[in-house]
Design a protein that fits this description.
alpha/beta, 25% helix, 5-stranded mixed beta sheet, 3-stranded antiparallel beta sheet, globular, 8 strands
């Protein structure tokens, strides 16, 4: 299972990218966009289409998040408030999940592959 799924969960859209991690450049196989889910059940329904042959999911959301798991507050996604999203997604999808604040995820991406790749910290 050399694939991972990256999820940018916003108030208007959820964008999902599937990465092939068996290739040296972690080739982006596809990116899809869906209207932002209005409920936890709809979010699970969207993600379930991507989980068959992947190692795990990285979820980025505009939210206050503790320990890459607990969504303390999500101003545009109130149905996530107070939810341990990592635990609940891992149980529902049967895959490893990491949950991050969207700005933290963006910085990590820039360090890994973007304008900050020459730096160890940003």
């Amino acid at each position: 299972m050399p694939r991972r799924v990256g999820v940018d969960l916003g108030g208007s859209w959820v964008r999902i990218g599937v990465l092939d991690t068996s290739r040296p450049d972690n080739t982006l196989e596809r990116v899809e966009r869906h209207p932002s889910p209005a409920s936890w059940d709809r979010f699970l329904e969207i993600l379930s289409h991507y989980g068959h042959d992947v190692e795990g999911f990285g979820i980025a959301a505009a939210a206050t998040i503790e320990e890459h798991a607990l969504v303390v507050k999500a101003p545009n996604l109130h149905w996530l408030d107070g939810r341990n999203a990592r635990r609940d997604l891992e149980a529902a999808l049967g895959k490893k999940v990491v949950v991050s604040n969207d700005m933290e995820a963006a910085a990590e991406g820039e360090i890994a592959r973007g304008v900050l790749k020459e730096y160890r910290w940003a």
